[in-house]
Amino acid sequence: MVLTLAFRNLFHDRIRLIVTLIGILFSIVLVAVQLGLYLGARKMIIGMIDNANAELWITAYGAKSFEEAGSLDGRQRHIALSVPGVASVEPLIAAFNEWRKPDGGATLSVVVGTDMPVGGLKPWNVIEGDARAIFQPDAVAVDRTYLENLGVKGLGDAAQIDAYRVKIVAMTEGIRSFTTAPYVFMPLARARDVMGMTSTQTTFLLVKLTPGADEGVVQKAIASRLPGVEVLTTATFRERSLAHWLFSTGAGVALIGGALLGTLVGTVIVAQTLYSSTKDHLNEFATLRALGSSAGYIHRVILLQAALSAAFGYALGMTIAMGIIYLSQNTALPIIMTPGLAIGLLVLTVFMCAISALAAIMKVTRIDPAMVFAR
Question: Is 236 within the bounds of a domain?
């Protein structure tokens, strides 16, 4: 009986129901998109760090992120190799440079110099060509998302990085940059030439530990032998990069702020609609009270009415949000939906509608059953 009454109350005024559902789905879509963008940005920022084969990173002091780090002179590699517990130390270069399009114009790119055969950072999700082919003369690998930005169409196309000719021999999918500057993979030696570095200079040293070695002990031992540089764990470097790009630049604050705004707007719309609906049915609720219905019974009707609104609004909102997420997958800033985020949005929707129902419940609580006899 409670479900029937709640259902009929909800669908009695179709226009008001539509307004309620629009408020909920607007909130769901906005929160899903904003938090999905946040997750997408987060994944791009830490993608290179998470896919590098290293437990520790040796960087120039004050390195802010994967793309923004100073150079090392190379002597640190041999010192780090002498530390007990270190299995390997591999150099890696990551630095901005100018990509010159074949038809004219230029764009910023990030040169990634790697020694894949000995454990350096490897391009992943290769969909065309072979990542090992980058060791051919002038060969590079890029992500498919940035082909138009780079002024090329696919495998075999040539361009220039600074004054050096490059040819695309492999393409990846999903290796995106938060800075929108495409990553360009090439061998370490060629990257040094392109960046004007000496044969020993590098940007990072990737430290791989021996099985059973204590990460903290090895980190302190390397740091004590290498003054003037930083020795960071992967987790620390990941958090530093996230803090730099998301919060120092304000991008993360804007995305989270948009999500909070969507929640607030949705809650206000739903609360106003539920309150208005309850107010219009005060005589009916007073009749129920006069017939002996308890306050708890009426409260359950209102809460169930809010729950039905949440269910319908969530279904519609997630349908629209998933469509937007699907359309964003091949863009430079994809939106990510995870099971945890989907569950969180459901909980948020139910909570939002439950809070909205409180105003209506407070109104009903003050009903005088005698008002039905005064009509």
Answer: no
